[in-house]
Amino acid sequence: MEEKERKLVVGLGNPGPKYQNTRHNAGFMALALFAEKQGLENPSVSGQSLLSFGKVAGQKVVLAWPQAFMNNSGPPTRKVLDYYKINPSNMLVVHDEMDVPLGRLKFSRGGGSAGHRGLESLLEVIPAEFDRLRFGVGRPPKTAILAKTMDYVLAPFNSLEIELLDKTLIWAADLIRVWVTMGLAKAQMLGNRAEPAQPKKPKPKPDSQASPATAGSDQTLAPPQEPTLEP
């Protein structure tokens, strides 16, 4: 039986504890959780990247976290592609996306950078089309202190975002597995939802009273539910 071509998944972010939990490191975080859930080997330094290797449902995969900072993600990624002879069509790049709200994910193939410095660096050295998983981080309110784009993406997720962030990271890790094992089309079908599901309000029973925990709730956005994935 012919062996499947190796696939590469790249998480974009900035190295070092200063940037560990910032919005710009959503790609780093999602890829790390994927590696943990799949039981892949701990990453080790190779050139200007952290690399991890393994198999997912029989598919050979390389995971890469470029360590040359976001704006210079391209050259380290190009070296990994060349060294392991991986075609860019077999590469998925996981990155933060301000044009997508937190709690949503979008898969796509090809396209421009939309001002994302990490993607700009990649496109300078990898002109061929590759797949992307855009991890929504949303935009700051116009009245926010961190209204400047760079200040916003380099700031940590705030306390109100953590629960939704954690659930979205789990969702992203599961969808990366779908991409690795079943391809882009299947990942898009499961991941590219038009809008997050609205919470369903239970019908009150006769003479029932609202509990203090839910009374007056104005929740409008339900966290993404972990998808049921095929093995």
Can you describe this structure?
- It is a single chain.
- The protein has helices at residues 26-37, 74-83, 117-125, 149-153, 162-182, 184-191; strands spanning 7-11, 44-46, 49-56, 59-66, 91-97, 105-109, 131-136.
- The chain has a single domain, classed as Rossmann fold, CATH 3.40.50.1470.
- It is built from six helices and seven strands.
- The longest helix is centred in the last third of the chain and has 21 residues, at 162-182.
- By secondary structure, it is an alpha/beta fold.
Give the helix/strand layout.
Layout: E1 7-11, H1 26-37, E2 44-46, E3 49-56, E4 59-66, H2 74-83, E5 91-97, E6 105-109, H3 117-125, E7 131-136, H4 149-153, H5 162-182, H6 184-191
Parallel strand pairs: 1-4, 1-5, 5-7
Antiparallel strand pairs: 2-3, 3-4, 6-7
